[in-house]
Specification:
The chain has 302 residues and is α/β, with parallel strands linked by helices. Helix content is 30%, strand content 31%. It has ten helices and 15 strands. Strands 1, 2, 3, 4, 5 and 11 form a six-stranded mixed beta sheet that branches. Strands 8-7-9-6-10 form a five-stranded mixed beta sheet. Strands 13-14-12-15 form a four-stranded antiparallel beta sheet, with helices on one face. The chain is elongated. The chain starts with a strand and ends with a helix.
Length: 302
Amino acid sequence: MSTRVAYLGPAGTFTEQAVRQWDPQRQHEPVPLATVSAVVGALRDGEVQAAVVPFENSVEGSVPATLQALLDDPLVRIVQELLVEVQFSLLAPEGTTLDQVRQIATHPHAAAQTREWLAQHLPTVEVVHESSTARAAEAVAEGRYAAAIASPEAGAAYGLVPVAERIADRADAKTRFVVLRSGAPVPPATGADRTTLVALIWQNRPGALLELLEQFAVRGIDLTRLESRPTGEGLGEYCFWIDADGHLSEDRMGEAMLGLRRTCRDVRFLGSYPRADGRAQAVPVHADDQAYAEARAWLDDL
């Protein structure tokens, strides 16, 4: 039986590209949904067995809708990550010229990643935000807008042609996507893994962040992302989103998690999974599993 996989649609989104990268043989049934919260909700309710959502962009940073959806659902786990190269085109119906474009539809992240190009070539154009770049292309095909900033695949999906190509301000931009499962076991360690979690401190006080960071620093764990986000519980109430190099099964990561659990109000574990780039972090000699085993043996002898 094939797996139903929800993703941020409609057809032609970069998320659909991530789904194809995850399932190149097209063995599973893709289910496009309009919002990230709808994607995660379908996974939670058992309507699909997996989900793919955008998590972080190399230019614009994290995707707030994804962070909030993951925070709201404690059963959803990240089991894999994917990196997709981001290329944008200015798409319009055939025959449209650049000087005819007065209004452009796109996703906010795409608008931010083409800001310099727009300022140079279309400084007076109105930019309207849609839920995805593919939805923007679909709206142009429906006649609602003159043009859209979206992927070349979106142009092909909705019968649009490029008025301008490769318009991203940074040619090497990538978006990180994550594959989600509900109640899934943690994938086994590969030696090149990432752990994602959310830490909620007891209260905002001097040294609270330092105390949190020390749990990783003294155990030789590199943090690849640290971001504060509102908890939704009131102004000034924040939680910390953390990506750490390592796997939950490693002694150093397990001990760091124990330290966080003792010193934080709550810790949300979102998954340990293989890094998409396959890059393994060099573990300090004092922090590898052998060092922990020798320390335990020493303590037992005492």
